Amino acid sequence: MKRILVAISAALFASGTAFAQSTTVVVPGEVRTYVTEQEVPSVTYDGDIVVGSELPSSVEVHTIPSNSDYAYTVVNKKRVIVSQKTHKIIEIVK
Prior knowledge:
Elements (H helix, E strand, L loop, with lengths): L1 H20 L7 H9 L24 E2 L6 E6 L2 E6 L5 E5 L1
Antiparallel strand pairs: 1-2, 2-3, 3-4
């Protein structure tokens, strides 16, 4: 019985962790609008530009005056919105 409880607990914990990793962040419209209106040079980066990947600290990001949670940059000619704290890509702006 004890083994079954341990197995169930482990399964529930693992599924909760997986769910937390797939959480989607919704970027406010005014942040997206601000980012699309800014002209900044594109930087070259060898890594993958995908949502969830973290940009290295060597990639300069620009703050968004109206919302300190987000920052942006243009990498490999792709405009991206990142978390100000972690530099993880939240959205690739089309």
